[in-house]
User: Fold EamA domain-containing protein from Bremerella alba.
Amino acid sequence: MWYLTDCILEYMTQRTSPNPWLGLICGVLAAVGYSLANICLRWLTTLDPVWVSFLKAIPTVVLFAPIALWQIRTGRSPMPKLSSIFILILAAISSQLLGNAMLQWSFGVVGVAMSVPLCLGTMIVVGVMISKWLLYESLTRWQRWGTASLVLALMTLSLAGRGAVQSVVNDPSGWLLIGAGIVAPMLAGISYAFLSVAIRRGVSGEVSMFMTTSLICAVGMGILGPLSLYTTGLEEMALTTWPQYGVLLIAGLLNAAAFVALTLSFRYAPVIIGNAANSLQNPLSALAGVILFHEAYSINLIFGVVLTVLGVVMMGLREKPLSTHPEELEIASAVVEDGR
Assistant:
């Protein structure tokens, strides 16, 4: 049994020969996994978002921490430096508080159909701004067009905010709630963008993807667990039903599985294929929000989702070969999309 486990883990962490079709399948599976996880989390909007985010992180730590320890024990990955751990902890605190908790809250305000493309679009746009103006990285023509498409998508999706709030919380009144519902997933996207930069510039090439993800989620448990005692309280925690715990477990497992699928997608296929396949979670989340949860259906939502997918695809197009190492792409793309 242990020999079989070692073989599986070694296969997942080894370099593999390119296989675009297998990469495409893995990318689609990642999109489906993240979409199903978001559907599960949308069902849990009656619970405190901090409490939900805390519980969602547990399966990832349970699954990935042993793999990270196995990599260190067998010499496949070195023990991370204290400076790398410090960078990850700081980035993880931001992504857990401003990322996961805010995104979960937005599911109960503007819905999953609108929150997912807002978060993803903002994450990529802010990532481009950081790369251009802080890291002095050059942008290709396709990346500029993709950024423009994503900015237009964010503006279009914002126009659908009032209808989204009314369909989710049945509150036609406050513009403050509408604004907060729009800003919350965008704040999540900003935190994920900075997490991506911290990983790419601070620890990529040194810390394995499993160590990175398990550490980020472990920090989330350490921060969100005590915080949920204040935001939720022991009495409300006790009211969490076993079916809700089951949905949370499924959401956490889907998140972890989608992370692995996305990582394998970038390992087998070019980035454009992985990005294009994974961007399917935008229309899938929109369909789930409209059909399953009766969220607002408007031309602005449709146009915004289409522009987001188009922008993600264009961001992956390259005019010349990438100089970035494959490991950096895997960590920067897969960890941030898991986010979490």
In short: Residues 42-338 form one domain. The chain is about 80% helix and 0% strand. The first helix runs from residue 2 to 13.
